[in-house]
Amino acid sequence: MKLKIRRRQFGKLVLASAATTAIINLANKSVAQNSNTIVYGAIVAAKGRKQAKDQESTDVANTTPAINVTALDVVTLQQVSTTEVPSTAVDNANTVTESAQKALYTEPTERITGFTSLSDGSFVFVVVGSSRKGNYTKLLITDIKKPNKKPKSKKISGFKKTNNTIESVVGTKDDKLICIVSESGGTPPFKFALVDPQNGKVSYESDLALPELFPNRRYSNLAQSPIDGKYYLTTMNSEGITQLAQLDLDNKSIITGKGKIIELSPLTFDRQALANDLFSLAFSPSGDLYAVGKLKSEQTKYLFNVDLKNAQMKRLTEFSVDKIAFARS
Predict the structure, then answer these.
(1) Buried b / exposed e across 303-317, counting CB within 10 Å, b at 16+?
(2) pTM of this prediction?
(3) Residue spans per domain, the chain
């Protein structure tokens, strides 16, 4: 009798084990299938903000702050994970940058101005550190899915003027980094440029024939569609109207020989024009456009879905991050 019970117990254990394995395999398969629906949101960690205030200006120039990265499933709207990218020292500290001491005292701050992905699965952050000694733009490359792999950071140089900053970046399909450079720490005028992820050098001339930008408008939030390869961004005029725009590099201007900025529809939510610029734009691998922004008179940041046809925004959930990006599929 005892032997029969043991056999039954053994059989149950085998069945339970098989069922558990099946569930695990099913779960792993589900995660693999849903990996394209995961959006990553980045924000400077609280310790990173404190670090900026405590550090000397030389440290702000040569280190990136700690960054919190939150993974969110855009289908279930559930948070999947939170990862901290540690503070990282640049590996080119001796590189001379185009920074100069500011006339007025500036409390040291750190902000993420760009977030994009590369074809090898790694992510690229652009961080601007500001202090009384000037503005410093830094590049941070890390693989969030491989926490044991050490991040790499570089100080960015090659700007045309002192205290220029990079205010948006997008990784192309061949891993070039197109960026928007501000000559005034985030305000107009802006210029297009490329930044080399290998050495952190900014270049204003390229075979992409990037167009000139109007001096009295704000340009930000570069994103590339994985479906047709077209680039999108936001532009804000002096009246505060924020529009979705397309960076057309295929149809060059007859006069300048460079690409064009094609303004699309003004961004709207609930039939009202967006009262301020977005924080970030990003395309999912399936071609859906998402944004992070605030609504008028609200301090809460939300994740939105954006309709490319009419620039109407649909609010999805609260998402307290500054920049978003999807991993390459």
Answers:
(1) bbebebeebbbeebe
(2) 0.86
(3) 36-326
